[in-house]
Structure prediction request, 299 residues.
Amino acid sequence: MNLASLQTKTEVRIDTSLKQDIFTLNGIQQSGVPLERVQSFMGIIRKWSESSDYSLINSENNFPDSAGLASSASGFAALAAAASAAYGLELSTKDLSRLARRGSGSAARSIPSGFVEWYAGHTDEDSYAKTIAPADHWDLADCIAIIKKEPKETGSTAGHQIAATSPIQKARVLDCSRRLDICRQAIKEKDFSALAEIIELDSNLLHAVMMSSTPPLLYWCGISLEIMKQVARWRKEGIPAAYTLDAGPNVHVICEGKYQDEIIKRLDEITGVLAILPSRPGNGACMLGLDKINNLPTP
Ligand code: ADP
Prediction:
């Protein structure tokens, strides 16, 4: 589910005087791994466009990065759209999604709008995401309980690299298409209790793998667990809400839209919740200030 309120704006300006790409994130010029990741992605853009020019890249996220809120997904989707437009690549939504995946796997999902499915595929050609329902298909809300704003100690890429050391990763992957089928069906039929059960299982499995990796990765903190237990209690009381956690301690509480205010009120009462970011389903990548490039919509 794309989130309407969590956004990245990225500008790519080709500068023929540059000897390398320069990347500024939220006003701070980047170096080290974040810069190398962007430079390596720009290398793909240069290859696809047969260009040797470097660029000034300026990006702003309106939410904390490296905190389990998928800034890398949002960031590389925005970069894929902006950079491909700047270098004159006219890409279909499918190819843009394929391209974004090369920056961050989950960025493939932030290109198409609304509720999307990422086809695992076997090669780069067939691993991309597609809309399964538009943003207005189901009035859900994601109320993100922020517990920690600081960057996590171990980023998602490092987490992915050790997942195979967990003895349960194989079972998790084997069962993936079953969970995906249930999730897709739940979204299509707007069946909240089926959705709740499957997203909580999926999240618990992800964290079980990380906890049982070598070295173990414990992304939750005490308050994350407290919220997870509360959400399960609220659901028993009849409030359609479910939790899911990305690679970080912050908890996404998904609920039916009309319960958003009630969920925010309840989350606000939990000690240790620093802020709550609510969002409804949203569109994917779009071009700001440019018409019809990459066949993407304007806002
Ligand atoms: P998150 O949970 O926020 O996705 P990750 O560890 O997966 O955390 O990714 C964080 C990394 O994503 C950052 O260190 C940075 O390298 C990259 N990133 C975040 N925002 C952007 C952006 N707007 N443009 C390019 N890269 C970004």
